[in-house]
Amino acid sequence: MALKDLFKQELKVVNIGLASFQEALHAYGTKSVHVDWRPPIEVAGPAKETIAARESDITRANAKVMEIILNGKPCLVGLDQAMHVIPGMTRNTILHAGPPVTWERMCGPMRGAIIGALIYEGLAKTPDEAEKLAASGDIHYAPCHEHCAVGPMAGIVSATMPVFILKNEAYGNFAYATMNEGLGKVLRYGAFSDEVIQKLKWMETTLYPALKAAIQKLGKIDIKNIIAQALHMGDEVHNRNRAATSLLFRQLAPSIVRTCADAETAARVLEFIHSNDHFFLNLVMAASKVTLDAARDIPHSSVAVVMARNGTDFGVQLSGTGNTWFTGLSPVPDALFFPGFTKDDANPDIGDSSITETNGLGGFAIAAAPAIVQFVGGSTQDAFNYTLQMYEITAGENNVYQIPNLNFRGTPTGIDVVKVIRKNITPFIDTGVAHKKPGIGQVGAGVLSAPIEPFRQAFEGLARKMSEAGK
After folding, report:
1. Which CATH superfamily includes the segment(s) 73-286?
2. Which residues contact 74 (CB under 8 A, 6 or more apart)?
3. What is the domain partition of the chain in residue ranges?
4. What is the CATH number of domain 45-69+297-469?
5. In this structure, which of 14, 279, 403, 454 has its CB flanked by the most CB atoms within 10 Å?
6. What is the pLDDT of residues 48-62, one digit of tens each?
7. Global pTM?
8. 238-265 pLDDT, tens per residue?
């Protein structure tokens, strides 16, 4: 447009910065356009200089990481008890969600889930006995992520619990996850009543052998293919897994019928899966884990391979910084609460399930499942906007996981910590909410933006590692 024609057009105010400034303009009838711009996050000066100087190295490393992630082929290949397949698992080991945490700093739902696990394992008879044992120093606690595993919410895995075995057929690595119990009063939300333990025992003695035999007969199940189909059917495969569970059910059902010892057992197993829309959740978590683990340890890469929460801390790991955890306090989600509960009852965000977002799913694919934003009074456009914003902080787009509502655009994949810091945008996550006290269970579901502190630390940690490597 020529300068002389500029003032012939209708003038509008361009508002940059605080959205509240635009609200004042609207109040006086002034037309305006809001630009959602944020200043970069402040980081240590030397870190900023190092990252800027090594930009080309980071870009090349991230391209390699994205190639590995996009080529991943996660398949379900079997089930076994944790102590037989998870590396480093022992009788007195309990794995938990998120970064490392001691018993003293553990939140209520994680403590409750550990109490339940100790009773389940027969190491304690009562909650009081279990709590004393848990605090005694005789139990070894470790993050699931440090043992090729993932767990939703409290994420507790103990020795005899059955776990899914997933193999990345492109790179040969494995990952593990427990079977999903369903919603409500369940172990992963910190409940440990008799009915919780009885359900876990039924899963061990009936569900596990039935599924193990069925999958053995099938040989393997292509989990990546199910995820891709489910995105086309309204799932984002974190908080909504109805389509994915149904697709899995269709593959399993004939094999379960053929391999079960009796019709009643087959019926009960099929009814359990059918009644549990979240049954697929643990599988998509393990599929994301096995995909991202293959992309670890690529020097100079700023792409996250883990986001995880233990109900106290929110942790991040980068491909380029090895097994180092970068942490900050975990926030409380904005949520729709069950009747009788409020935000005051909610525990800070918890669980390894944000591995789905790390893999370009969940909140990053929420445009495929806009109904989820109703948890917090959002709209379909809000869901689109959340996903569109995530493209700004990722290294690429998925070549298989697509969003129909965005003209089948690939999901934003590969969280780039450099972009997170420079654009001051943190990952968007949808999640369940546990009561902050042990023994109560789930109280709602909602969404949140990840805290900035772990990403600030990760940015500075990557710069530090690059500087040390250059000496």
Report:
1. Enterococcus faecalis V583 domain (3.90.1710.10)
2. 166, 167, 168, 169, 175, 223, 224, 286, 287, 288, 290, 291
3. 45-69+297-469, 73-286
4. 3.90.1700.10
5. 454
6. 999 999 999 999 999
7. 0.92
8. 999 999 999 999 999 999 999 998 999 9
